[in-house]
Here is the input.
Amino acid sequence: MEPLFNAAARCLSACEIEEKLRLTEQTAAAWRAGLLSLQSQSEPEPIGESGHPAKPVLVPPGDVPKRRFGSQTGIIALIHAITHIEFNAINLAWDAVYRFRHLPQQFYHDWVQVAAEEAYHFQLLRSRLNELGSDYGDLPAHNGLWDIATRTALDPLVRMALVPRVLEARGLDVTPGIIKRLHQAGDDNTAAVLEIILRDEIGHVAIGSRWFKYCCDQRGLDSEQTFRALISHHFIGQISGPFHYEARQKAGFTAAELQALEHMEAPTISSENFKSWDSQD
Here is the structure.
């Protein structure tokens, strides 16, 4: 029986879009059917670049096209930015499966599910781009989301705290407002796609919360104190609100964590690196 880790490595390293999607679907199906094992004869390779196509061209965050609601060009830029986030999220999920060993079987089940759902989101968004006469790769993008993966590659506790619970959770805060503005702009089709993504992303952040707290429990750490300490250590500047309390609570945030976020100044990564869907007016 092939190790899941080998299959995850293939998904992660695939560069062509269609191949990554095909391998993701194939691996998720094989895992659900019990055809992959958690046996491993080798340790994971050090983290490097994830597999991605030649386009989009990766540029500094400030060079990414502005995402305005007043024109179709601006809406395409918005959709493209979110599509790029979802492509990176496929890689992040597979990296979590591949990199972190000796965890309960449910951990791998959860992150295989996340990878499959992120691939579905990517396809929904790419189809919407196609309907508007564009495609993924037509605009530049930045690589901030993968940069944080490299910073958290040595410890699942840190990865679970900072990727799902900081970067992905930012999407829970801003997506409802974007959906509202898309409706106002008359783009109900894109809004409908984001409603699906928002529903699923609450579950993804909840998975991150569950495994962050599991890792804390295994080490005898207070999860709320540890979360605050990790944010203070890894982020420069203030984490900006407002925060969507209801969505974050569904995703496993405690009242104390939300209150701490409201008052916390996070003294190594700018807000451009959040998994953020903020529009720019």
The first strand starts at residue 2 and ends at 3. Strands lie at 2-3, 36-37. The chain has one domain: 2-38+57-273.
